Amino acid sequence: MITVDTLGSLLAPAYSHGEDFLAEQCARYAEAIRLFQETYGQGPVRIYRAPGRVNLIGEHTDYNQGFVMPTAIDRDVVVVGRPRTDSVVRARNVEERYREFEFECGTSIAPGPVGDWSNYVRGAAQRLAQETGGPLQGMDMVVSGRQPHGTPIGVGLSSSTSLTVVATLALSDANEMGLDGQRLAELAAQAEWYTGTRGGIMDQFASVLGRGGHALFLDCRPIAPGRYRLERIPLPEGYRVVVCNTGVRHENTRSEFNTRVFECRVGAHLLSRRFPQVRYLRDVSAETLGMTPSEIEAVVDEALPPAVSGRDLIDQGIVAAVAGDMPTTFRVDPERLYRVRQRCRHVVTENQRVLDSMEALKAKDVTWFGHLMEAAHESVRDNYEVSIPEVEAMLEAAHSSPGCIGARLTGAGWGGCVVAMVRESEVQDFAVSVAERYHRATSIRPDVFICNSATGAQVIARDEAFQLPTLTR
Questions:
Q1: Which one of 70, 250, 415, 421 has the fewest beta carbons within 10 angstroms of its own beta carbon?
Q2: 49 lies in which domain range?
Q3: Alpha carbon distance, N-terminus to C-terminus of the chain
Q4: Does 404 map to a domain?
Q5: What is residue 1's three-state secondary structure?
């Protein structure tokens, strides 16, 4: 029987950032366990966690089968669960603003309301049922993602992925599917398509396969079905990753995200007419085309139109060729100009920056890595056009604060967070300075937190009984 006093022994391997931090996590887990007991009854439970991530470099490259370099962070989503004897999933959240829900597992699960948190669990259950070819064993669960220890929502740190991954892990474990890390991450990525965003695999792989003290270099092109090339790169000693939240959430941008996906597909299709070996923008590379990086950039500028109307893309049959598996909510606007050249220029040059960043970190050349972060931001701002004034104000605040080696927008964009690499000796001064400067510029008080890299998704406890005080409200 595990008590509050002994809960820490289970959590210590996942949260090794000091006794105070571990004590806070113990209180958080105890709250979720007590709520589970109140809702679903006493008895053994299983406990799972999945972290968010911050992407150090490699933005909007994963769904183009390119390269990325995220790191998992010590903000996560936790599930306390118990397998059921039927195929029903019931879930409750420690935050009362999220409604309870239940559904029956199957290969086709009706979605909840648009934007509802249940859809990430529904997507996980549906994809796993499709993988097994039939109904799953269900589960009762309580979810905990409340701040300050939960993955922040809507700021580009993959809160939705944390929830999808932990639900995928819990349900696959309940059904004894025996998934290894790469397959678990890939299924979680496909599960998230259920919500209507056609993203790549970076977030899920970082959440599942992250390791403390390391960035994860990931090649998003499979080398075999369900297998990807990855390498864990030690983060530089004497520096900390700092996440600066602008306080602006990227709501209602799914259509623009999907538009960027579409524009990249158009670019790859047009380039394939000249270079048949090009299937994705990943293929517009020195490795595939036998050209230097500068020659590659010249090819992109020469071969792709700066803008093309939706009407022309429809009339030329390009929409039919590239948009067949886009989300059903995506529509090509005949009157809109799609900026193909700019989008492709970003992806092609960003892939090279990720490769250069891997070499910089291996060489412990933090200055070079900082320059690459700055170049990455300039490209995502100017070519991909996903920055906003508040992000630019945060970048200026970071550049003007002590210890900053490099900074850039992280996440899909349209708000969210800036990630900075900061000298550890100055990290506290940096955090105070950047918050003050940003507040003066925008009147918004930002959240600035110094990250610890984290272990990836894991089973914390399996069929353990807990003796905890009764939950009172």
A1: 250
A2: 2-235+454-467
A3: 24
A4: yes
A5: coil
* Distance separating alpha carbons of residues 348 and 288, to the nearest angstrom: 12
What number of residues does the chain have? 473
**244 belongs to a structural domain:** no
Residue at 426 is within a domain? yes
Q: Contact at 8 Å (CB) between 172 and 184?
A: yes
For the record, the structure tokens of 383 come out as 């070519």
Its pTM stands at 0.90
Q: How far apart (Å, rounded) are the C-alpha atoms in residues 150 and 76?
A: 5
The amino acid that residue 207 corresponds to is S
Q: What is the CATH number of the domain that holds 194?
A: 3.30.230.10
Spatial neighbors of 163 by CB under 8 A, at least 6 apart, are 50, 77, 117, 120, 121, 143, 145
Same-domain status, 105 and 131: yes
Per the structure, the count of domains in the chain is 2
Same domain, 173 and 199: yes
DSSP β-bridge partners for residue 217: 231
CA–CA distance, 203 with 46 (Å, rounded to integer): 24
Give the pLDDT of the chain (473 residues) as one tens digit per residue.
778 778 999 999 899 778 899 999 999 999 999 999 999 999 999 999 999 999 999 999 999 999 999 999 999 999 999 999 999 999 999 999 999 999 999 999 999 998 899 999 999 999 999 999 988 999 999 999 999 999 988 777 889 999 999 999 999 999 999 999 999 999 999 999 999 877 789 999 999 999 999 999 999 999 998 899 999 999 999 999 999 999 997 665 778 999 999 999 999 999 999 999 999 999 999 889 999 999 999 999 999 999 999 999 999 999 999 999 898 889 999 999 999 999 999 999 999 999 999 999 999 999 999 999 999 999 999 999 999 999 999 999 999 999 999 999 998 899 989 999 999 999 999 999 999 999 999 999 999 989 888 999 999 999 999 987 664 44
Report yes or no: 75 and 150 within 8 Å, Cβ to Cβ.
yes
CATH assignment of the domain containing 295: 3.30.70.890
Q: Are residues 226 and 290 in the same domain?
A: no
Strands 466-467 and 2-3: parallel
β-bridge partners, 420: 242, 407
Is 203 tagged catalytic?
A: yes
Same domain, 229 and 299: no
Calculate ∠ Cα 456-461-463, nearest 5°.
145
SS3 for 230?
A: strand
Whether 219 and 310 map to the same domain: the answer is no
Same domain, residue pair 368 and 433:
yes
> What residues does 48 pair with on adjacent strands?
79, 459
Q: Which two tokens stand for residue 225?
A: 């079905």
Considering the domain architecture, whether residues 460 and 443 belong to the same structural domain is answered as no
Question: Of the listed 62, 74, 203, 219, which one is catalytic?
Answer: 203
